Amino acid sequence: xxxxxxxxxxxxxxxxxxxxxxxxxxxxxxxxxxxxxxxxxxxxxxxxxxxxxxxxxxxxxxxxxxxxxxxxxxxxxxxxxxxxxxxxxxxxxxxxxxxxxxxxxxxxxxxxxxxx
Length: 116
Hints:
Blueprint: H1 7-31, H2 36-39, H3 44-47, H4 55-69, H5 74-103
Helix pairs in contact: 1-5, 4-5
């Protein structure tokens, strides 16, 4: 039988993915001292015409794709939904519960500052 896991299991996996993504993000930010605004403006910033791509945006796209594919691929779509939600919540946690208290700014910019 081709069943999709329950909401309780979805909540568990979203939490697991959120923690994994946030640990990776914090390790890059504080362990490797990488800052998106400073370290990606000249590369990714040029490709996106100055638009900052937060991982919550990618999570949103993955969630929309999961909804679109749900009828044809329910199991894959379920995992895509869990991963997309994990990306989304990790980005919100990173900017508003980690960066804001630690560096006194959420640094949730929509565009790279000019001149970087």
